[in-house]
């Protein structure tokens, strides 16, 4: 090409550059560079005469100046950097001035890293901004070497295939630089970079502020990593981190010798973390560590870890750990807040957690708050360790293959160490293999012998815990346990301190459940195991345990609620003279850790030991309802094992109206106690609608004292009698405690529901008030003319020599009408009443096929004279036809039909509640029908019949109210009991009114006759005396 053509091409490219470079890209004070039309010279850099290379621009730009790179076609011809030639070959030269670089027209590609260095070790602030640049296939993108402080802004840049995209490195010999640094990166991408943004590993700035917004990090070792940074504030918003082999965000310290007093904060909002080994990893020795996450998504690869043991990797996708020494007394505070975020499919590869927070320091504390957050299909969800408060509000944990929540505290020492506190409010835990676990034993640092638990608090309110497929063969929904150190392992010397630290012998535990529903679980809903010397409270209030089954540990005596104090001390023997073998135990009624279960319901729970299972302790069950709970071998509702447990039951109801389960052979005992502790039951009801034939409904076999008040009732199924086996005091067993020996005398009480033997019957259900069996409910001898089998009574077949005839109602109705119209003779009517069915067929035949002749009418008229008396009996009380009114001469059939309907309902509907509903409805319909028809001629008769029917409706309604309560397994108590007493007296008054009037009239008539006899007798006697005196 000739010189003229080259000049023309240069002028044309320059014109294109000017056209492509709009007015908005022309900035004042910018040194322009164009690899297309620029020429390097000492005077280049203006808009009209740009430089050609970036090194020339870097030489010419002033400190604090700005370079504008023409990005047109720079992808195929990228810009180079400053280079020097040394003994090790060509090296990139450091830039020792503040500079800003911007791509114009289009993104400017740079094939090398820009290295910035400081001329001084102290007090130098390096400033710069970089925008619209692309760094591709280079070792570094932007490298700040030994810069004590910097203020850098990066926007609209791309870093592709770089080893370290943005790297801040300090290699000074002093340990701390007390300067503030600032880095802001927006609208940029980091693709296939080993480290996207890195601080360290020998950088120890006093404070670093990092702002990341609208970024994409994809594929690398770290997205953002801070190493050995003493204090920082990191804000991440609207960014995405994908496919990082170690951590998307990593904050680490290599050397930990002491607590760093500075505060560290990380804020992440509206961001996504997908398919990373760790999403946020913070392992720091700082005194205050804050992490705030909101509206973020954390997602891992779908999969399932092959579970081989219960040991878990306690790291997490979000992993925050304080690495301060265990015994450093400096206060450590860790604060984590997570709101409106989603964690799903995490921890499958390494059996880790979605969120893990750990503080090993004995004096450390803090809080972890999670709200409006969901955990879905994770291997494990949340782990905390340390003196932390963990707060869940409106959190959903669903389909966790391992632990939903796992919490523990460092071993408690004589030097006060805070325990772990877990609070759940309005949460849903569904289909998790293991729910909440607070029974982890931990060991002191630098030794494995000194292991124990710390103080623990678990409070769950207004929450729902559901079972599902993942809970099959699973762990407990809530496991709360505290194990104490062994006697010989209570002291440890901890490094680096030489101070001896003693484990505490006293612990505090608090477990509160309020308004929590446990539904469809496949292991224990609540499992508690606590050693002695623990103070606090276990409270279950207003909770519901529904349709839970426990078949995981078939060889253990397990139930829906399992509470055990395995090493509880037995009662004390009183002081007495030597040789006294009749000592009585001294029971300590005050417990350091009482168990309160109140206002709760237990329904359709099935397990080895039914609904509730206790070992030792002081247990109070109050205002609770138990319904249809089943146990395979040891009791269906409440079972207390052999030991020294104290049990109090107050104002509770037990109901069993179903028995048997598809997988078990149930024992439907309401209560089974094998404990030597006192048993006290007040104002409770035990109602068995069904029961196993040879199993007791109540059994207490080893209790030292049994108190059952008279307001407590036991009821058997209909037709069964209740029997009591009771030995008030019998010799029990000898208790030896060291040198002390005393005898435990035990009481023995069992209630059975038994069938009446053949030849006996029972129309009531066997019942007992306290230990007093009601005689009226015992089996009675079968009367003459009846058959009694299995407690039922039936009339012998055809005992009265005739069968009941249903067609009688129709005969009375139709026959009354025919008789009133003189179409039926009196003899035929009377005969049809004795044989109703044949005459119904005869009358049907006459009605449809035979027309009556005049002779027949004459015959019937003749016969009507004989039927007048019958008509008076059947028709006189009722209204005759008049005009359009057909009258009610047939009403005798209605009266009979009403009785037949009530008897049919009574005999053929066996369920008491359904029977009384139908009877009440029939009575109301009858009353309405009577009010509409007004069948009697006499108005007073209609009023009397109305009052009678209203009384019948009232009586049926009163009984319906009572049977409705009984059908729910409840006994009237308190104001309800008084109300039912009043209703019973009203019923007696209504039923006895007419008989009482009749009795009064009979008595008056008898008295009148006696008076008349006496009167006439006296008169006769006087006349006789007078006659004798005359003679």
From TrEMBL:
InterPro entries: PbH1, Pectin_lyas_fold, Pectin_lyase_fold/virulence
Database matches in SMART domains: PbH1 (SM00710)
Recorded superkingdom: Eukaryota
SUPFAM superfamilies assigned to the protein according to its UniProt record, in alphabetical order: Pectin lyase-like
Segments traversing the membrane: 829-849, 944-968, 988-1015
Alphabetically ordered keywords of this record: Membrane, Transmembrane, Transmembrane helix
PANTHER family per UniProt: G PROTEIN-COUPLED RECEPTOR-RELATED, OUTER MEMBRANE PROTEIN PMPC-RELATED
Protein name: Right handed beta helix domain-containing protein
Source organism: Stylophora pistillata
Lineage of the organism: Eukaryota, Metazoa, Cnidaria, Anthozoa, Hexacorallia
């Amino acid at each position: 090409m000739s010189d003229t053509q080259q000049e023309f091409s240069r002028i044309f490219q320059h014109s294109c550059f000017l056209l492509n470079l709009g007015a908005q890209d022309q900035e004042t004070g910018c040194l322009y560079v164009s690899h297309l039309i620029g020429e390097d010279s000492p005077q280049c850099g203006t808009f009209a005469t740009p430089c050609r290379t970036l090194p020339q621009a870097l030489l010419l730009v002033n400190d604090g100046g700005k370079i504008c790179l023409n990005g047109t076609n720079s992808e195929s011809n990228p810009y180079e950097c400053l280079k020097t030639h040394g003994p090790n070959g060509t090296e990139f030269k450091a830039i020792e001035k503040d500079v800003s670089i911007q791509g114009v027209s289009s993104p400017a590609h740079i094939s090398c890293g820009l290295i910035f260095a400081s001329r001084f070790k102290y007090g130098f602030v390096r400033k710069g901004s970089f925008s619209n640049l692309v760094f591709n296939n280079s070792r570094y993108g932007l490298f700040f070497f030994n810069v004590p402080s910097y203020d850098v802004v990066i926007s609209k840049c791309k870093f592709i295939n770089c080893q370290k995209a943005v790297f801040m490195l300090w290699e000074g010999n002093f340990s701390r630089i007390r300067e503030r640094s600032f880095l802001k990166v927006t609208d940029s991408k980091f693709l296939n970079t080993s480290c996207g943004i890195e601080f360290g590993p020998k950088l120890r700035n006093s404070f670093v502020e990092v702002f990341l917004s609208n970024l994409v990090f994809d594929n690398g070792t770290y997205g953002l990593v801070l190493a050995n940074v003493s204090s920082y504030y990191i804000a991440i918003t609207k960014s995405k981190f994908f496919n990082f082999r170690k951590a998307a965000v990593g904050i680490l310290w290599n050397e930990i010798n002491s607590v760093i007093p500075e505060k560290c904060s990380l804020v992440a909002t509206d961001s996504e973390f997908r398919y990373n080994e760790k999403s946020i990893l913070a392992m720091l020795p700082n005194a205050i560590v804050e992490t705030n996450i909101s509206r973020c998504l954390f997602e891992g690869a779908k999969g399932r870890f092959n579970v081989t043991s219960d040991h878990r990797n306690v790291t997490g996708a979000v992993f925050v750990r304080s690495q301060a020494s265990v015994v450093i007394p400096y206060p450590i505070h860790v604060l984590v807040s997570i709101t409106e975020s989603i964690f799903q499919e995490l921890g499958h590869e390494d059996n880790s957690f979605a969120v893990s927070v750990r503080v090993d320091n004995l004096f450390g504390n803090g809080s972890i708050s999670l709200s409006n957050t969901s955990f879905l299909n994770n291997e494990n969800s949340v782990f905390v360790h340390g003196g932390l408060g963990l707060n869940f509000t409106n959190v959903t944990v669903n389909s966790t293959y391992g632990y939903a929540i796992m919490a523990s505290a460092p071993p408690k020492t004589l030097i006060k160490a805070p325990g772990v506190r877990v609070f759940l409010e309005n949460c849903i835990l569904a289909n998790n293999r293991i729910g909440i676990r607070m029974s982890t034993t931990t060991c002191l640092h630098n030794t494995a012998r000194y292991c124990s638990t710390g103080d623990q608090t678990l409070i769950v309110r207004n929450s729902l815990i559901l079972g599902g497929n993942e809970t099959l063969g699973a762990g407990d929904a809530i496991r709360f346990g505290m194990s104490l150190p062994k006697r010989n392992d209570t002291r440890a010397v901890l490094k680096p301190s030489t101070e001896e630290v003693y484990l505490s012998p006293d612990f505090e535990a608090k477990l509160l459940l309020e308004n929590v529903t446990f539904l469809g679980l496949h292991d224990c809903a609540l499992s508690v195991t606590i050693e002695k010397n623990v103070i606090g409270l276990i409270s279950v209030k207003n909770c519901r345990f529904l349709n839970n089954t426990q078949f995981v540990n078939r060889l253990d005596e397990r139930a829906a609620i399992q509470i055990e104090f395995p090493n509880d001390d037995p009662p004390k023997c009183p002081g007495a003279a030597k040789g006294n073998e009749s000592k009585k135990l001294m029971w300590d009624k005050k417990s350091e850790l009482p168990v309160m279960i109140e206002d709760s319901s237990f329904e359709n729970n099935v397990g080895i030991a039914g609904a509730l299972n206790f070992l030792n302790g002081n247990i109070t069950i109050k205002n609770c309802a138990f319904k249809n709970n089943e146990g395979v071998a040891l009791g269906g509702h409440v079972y207390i094992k052999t030991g020294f447990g104290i049990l109090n039951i107050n104002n509770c109801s037990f109901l069993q109206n179903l028995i048997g389960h598809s997988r078990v052979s149930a024992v439907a005992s309401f209560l089974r106690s094998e404990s030597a502790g006192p048993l006290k039951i007040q104002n409770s009801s035990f109602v068995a609608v069904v029961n196993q034939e040879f199993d007791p409904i109540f059994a207490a076999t080893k209790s030292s004292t049994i108190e059952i008040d008279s307001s407590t009732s036991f009821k058997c199924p209909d037709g069964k009698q209740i029997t009591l086996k009771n030995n008030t005091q019998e010799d029990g067993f000898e208790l030896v405690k060291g040198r002390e020996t005393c005898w435990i005398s035990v009481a023995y009480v069992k209630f059975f529901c038994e069938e009446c033997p053949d030849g006996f019957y029972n129309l009531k259900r066997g019942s007992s008030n306290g230990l007093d069996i009601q005689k009226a409910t015992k089996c009675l001898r079968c009367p003459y003319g009846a058959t009694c089998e299995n407690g039922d009574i039936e009339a012998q077949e055809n005992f009265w020599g005739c069968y009941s005839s249903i067609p009688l109602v129709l005969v009375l109705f139709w026959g009354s009408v025919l008789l009133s119209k003189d179409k039926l003779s009196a003899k035929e009517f009377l005969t049809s009443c004795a044989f109703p069915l044949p005459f119904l067929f005869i009358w049907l035949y006459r009605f449809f096929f035979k027309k009556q002749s005049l002779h027949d009418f004459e015959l019937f008229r003749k016969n009507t004279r004989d039927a007048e008396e019958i008509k008076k009996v059947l028709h006189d009380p009722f209204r005759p036809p008049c005009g359009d009114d057909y009258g009610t001469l047939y009403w005798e059939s209605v009266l009979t039909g009403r009785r037949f309907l009530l008897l049919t309902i009574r005999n053929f509907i066996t369920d008491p509640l359904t029977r009384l509903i139908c009877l009440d409805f029939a009575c109301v319909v009858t009353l309405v029908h009577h009010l509409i028809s007004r069948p009697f001629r006499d108005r007073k008769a209609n009023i009397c019949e109305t009052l009678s029917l209203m009384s019948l409706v009232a009586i049926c309604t009163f009984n319906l109210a009572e049977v409705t309560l009984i059908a729910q397994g409840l006994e009237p108590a308190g104001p309800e009991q008084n109300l039912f007493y009043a209703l019973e007296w009203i019923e007696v008054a209504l039923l006895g009114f007419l008989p009482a009037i009749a009795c009064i009239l009979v008595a008056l008539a008898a008295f009148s006759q006696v008076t008349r006899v006496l009167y006439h007798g006296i008169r006769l006697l006087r006349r006789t005396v007078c006659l004798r005196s005359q003679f």
